[in-house]
Amino acid sequence: MKQVLHIIDDRDNTAIALADLAPGTNVTFSGPAGPQEITILDDIPFGHKVAVKPIANGEHVIKYGESIGAALQDIMPGNHVHTQNLESLRGRGDLVANDRP
């Protein structure tokens, strides 16, 4: 079976789409706990992020094992993770530097 999601680091709660993915598509991917399956909930363009774990509003979004921002709303596995539901935390002088995971 062709791999369509790629997780970079075991701490990631997002994966990278290796193909365009349509809502309703069931995908299996290799996660830290072995093979996992999610149903895609949104259109996910090639190269974009998709949630592979539930991400609560305000929780860090993790890619490459690092926080890339905070969720602006609850994000379910299979949701597209992008500017509509992700706020960047990088370069923000109003945030405390030790608030990163």
Write structural notes for this entry.
The protein is an all-beta fold. The protein has one domain: Archaeosine Trna-guanine Transglycosylase, Chain: A, domain 4 (Roll). The chain is built from no helices and 9 strands. It has strands at residues 5-6, 14-17, 26-31, 34-39, 49-51, 60-63, 66-71, 80-81, 86-87. The strands form 3 sheets. A 4-stranded antiparallel β-sheet has the order 1-2-5-8, with no helix packed on it. Strands 6-7-9 form a 3-stranded antiparallel β-sheet, with no helix packed on it. The chain has a two-stranded antiparallel sheet with strand order 3-4. Strand 6 (60-63) and strand 7 form a beta hairpin. The chain is globular, with a radius of gyration of 13 Å.
Question: Which features does this protein show?
Answer:
101 residues, Archaeosine Trna-guanine Transglycosylase, Chain: A, domain 4, 9 strands, 4-stranded antiparallel beta sheet
Summarize the structure.
The termini are far apart. The chain has no helices and 9 strands.
CATH topology: Archaeosine Trna-guanine Transglycosylase, Chain: A, domain 4
Instruction: Classify the secondary structure makeup into a structural class.
Output: mainly beta
Q: How would you sum up the major sheet?
A: 4 strands, antiparallel
- Beta-strand portion reads 25-35%
- What is the top-level CATH class? Mainly Beta
Number of domains: 1
Spatial ordering of strands, largest sheet? 1-2-5-8
Number of strands: 9
Helical run tally:
0
Q: Radius of gyration over alpha carbons?
A: 13 Å
Order of H and E elements: EEEEEEEEE
Percent helix? under 10%
User: How would you sum up the global shape?
Assistant: globular
